[in-house]
């Protein structure tokens, strides 16, 4: 990823000195010089930090927005990007330079082959127009013969195969992909998360007890280039029966048979085993009881626990807040402090700091939330939060207790005279003392404010995806993206 020229242009346009950028990212002078001269490609997390700090999309750093702004792009005959696939298929893209396109047009040369035709299935719609030769197309068992000048339009989620009946058949093929999740996402911060997840190495996901809702989510992850492989752990016959119309990426699926497992315990054990062995990168819950899955995760003998408390971090893009906000814990831990000990909260805070760093926040600002910013014996958690605030933190600024308005809004900070507080009004991470407060915030932000959100369960050896029936398709997809980036971060920092 060479971004030197684009980065120099952005710094000049925004009036930002190179020294200021270097200090913000923690680079030495040599590292910055090598990035600017395209001798060094930044890591994915560094791209996220760069884009966040400059307030632009990753696509701007990669130079794609210039092309996206062009609404008409010519592709000359000698400019086509060609691909040979085996000895009987060659295709050339007719619009590779138009960024963000919803249609993929190709010129395709298909030759007579001795081998059986390859069956394809993919979301979207497909159009074929025969320029020369004779083509046979089979769509969901129905056979069509196309001569020169004939065309065919069909739903490409149906199984289909193409065979040249002549020695050589040439056609125009157009694939309509529909809107990607990047177009459906409203906020700039979440767009950066999607862009970064697409650039990161694709992940392998272990789906325990697949059902229709979870299959739909992982299919979107495959379609958008986030997931390389999905292990379907459960009874294959049951999966094929309940998810027949959704099994559209045969090459990406790997069935892990578990039969006669009505309570899901064996499926949970096998799924965790795949993560423990390094075969899978992400663990996802399907139609299995959460308690059953988590018992396997935390098994002392075969689990993937690390000795740290598991916690949920919800990542929000809030209207009026120009950064991602990380909320913990609205879903797993009833209380921040176990046995009224300040040290028991360290794991939950560290978990949130880790995922924030994975998503490009180099030194997160952590607000320990309370109803009032003044420590008081009448609210014991305020004293524990004060104790945490006085602790030395290697990778974060931590302050508490802070009220909600003082954590997020600079105007409130100015009115109450807390300008010297390094976290007040600038919090990246909101830590709540009780699950009820976190749950209230979560639901009010999602349902009342319409905020976009992703959820990551961390503290184990790999991210865990626990989706809810009330989660939107976008939330499930953003959760896969954020979990993928956190998985990449774990491998890089191991």
TrEMBL record:
It comes from the Bacteria. One of its GO terms (molecular function) is DNA binding. This is Cupin domain-containing protein. Gene3D superfamilies: Isopropylmalate Dehydrogenase (3.40.718.10), Jelly Rolls (2.60.120.10), lambda repressor-like DNA-binding domains (1.10.260.40). InterPro entries: Cro/C1-type_HTH, Cupin_2, Lambda_DNA-bd_dom_sf, Phos_Acetyltrans/Butyryltrans, PTA_PTB, RmlC-like_jellyroll, RmlC_Cupin_sf. The keyword Transferase applies. It comes from Geomonas terrae. Pfam families: Cupin_2, PTA_PTB. The keyword Metal-binding does not apply. The lineage of its organism: Bacteria, Pseudomonadati, Thermodesulfobacteriota, Desulfuromonadia, Geobacterales. Keywords: Acyltransferase, Transferase. Residues 267-477 form the Phosphate acetyl/butaryl transferase domain. Residues 118-173 form the Cupin type-2 domain.
